[in-house]
Amino acid sequence: MPQINALIDAYIDANLLLLFAFLVGVVARALIGRTRLKQEFSLQLGLTEGLIVAAALCPLLALALTKANAWLYPSYTMNLTDIAVAQFLDGRMSMDAVTFESILTARQSFVDHLAQLETWWAIALAGLFAAGFAFAVGKTLQSVLQLKQLIRYSYVWRRFGKLDIRLSDSISVPFSTRGLKRRHIVLPSGMLAEPEALRIALAHELQHMRRRDVEWEMMLTLLQPLFFWNPAFGLWKRSLERLRELACDQALLRRRRVTPRGYADCLLNVCRRSIDASSSFNLVTPRVPLLSTHGVGQRNFRVLQQRISVLSESGAAQIQTTRSFWLSLSMLGLICVLAVSAFQKRGDWSQDRLMLSTVVNLERLKSRNTMSGFVGY
Amino acid sequence: MRQKKEHGLLTEVELEFMTALWQLETGSVRDVLSNLAPDRELAYTSAATILRILEEKGFVSSVKSGKTLIYRPRLTKDSYQTRSLKNLSAKLFDNTPASLVARLVDDEGLSQESLEEIRALLDRRLRDASD
Lengths: 377, 131
Known about the structure:
heterodimer, A: about 375 residues, five-stranded mixed β-sheet, about 65% helix, B: about 130 residues, mainly alpha, Arc Repressor Mutant, subunit A, two-stranded antiparallel ribbon
């Protein structure tokens, strides 16, 4: 049972961390939006990806910090709970000790209920999670199998090392993906007759490959079933997809590989064809398409609109990346410090916790004595 | 050449290539390229890829003549027309060819001459069936 408790505890931590890191990302991007870095999509993408890495590393950092703290200062632990207990004992919180302790132990009690599955709500919650998880895994597996089938029935056009450039009749939007060993860029076979569109689509997908966007997409696809209910995950993934496309467009334009006009025409043509070919494959994951055509139409339209408008502003000079680097690094540092302190596990009971427990016991004793009619001296 | 699966229909560009090849009967990549519409600007390598895909799909076969591959259709134009109509009938007309013909003859753009031709074709087919 302690293992199940630890597992549920870790899962709750991961979700809270995800939410927290997402909020840090939102704030960071809002701040960036007020500066000249607003149009630096590579930086914003790097920041978002950095936050994901930081969120993933936080539990390890928290564990390391707890261990180091316990080793260096055995009698001193600092975490949010201990700070709150100290505030309560100093009389800065006006509530009775039993209520305060029940708030402090609410999460533990929730985890215990879930692990034991003895209450109806715990059973219902576990059932809902299992059903949602199974559905999300099934959906991902279905997408992966469809993608595998699509790759199998596509035609190899070119081979460079571990990269295959393929042509398929079943798609209208080019995309990149990968298997365990090989990476694939899949283009609609009809594109062979449009040399300019073919060149742009290929340059776009190669840029995704260069940035390892496909690997990021794979990782998020694997994690999706675990966080299917967490809105922060979905929003984060969507924001990453949007930034990924904007950063890719911008990188190509800055390298002067394509003209803004030609690029915009290519995007609009692909969009038009994807609307016409309603019966073609419309896989959700795990792939990085030239243009997202899945999901809410209005949202895709807004992203396309933004991409076209960014193309028209592509002449803006690139801002020095040193500043971008320090900005990203400071944001990562911020999330690490905050998350590590927030998620640091409680060590042995501190003096304050023992004091609180004593107060709670006294209050309970008093209440019991009052109920039984015993009047003390 | 290994064929991946039975491919029913041709894509738009592939149909252009097949039409050129049906006219030529046999031809190299360059022959097919020169037989395409003048506004179709296609690189040699792209044309070679399209013909290679057509071969993988089983629509054409190739033989080597020196260093050049000579392509030949494996399917006649008539066979492809039949296949294409069957597909259209199945997908759009719920597998009822009568609805397909009804839609065709309902077309106001059809001339009196064409309608007479259709009637003659039907009469001949009915006569053949009753013999």
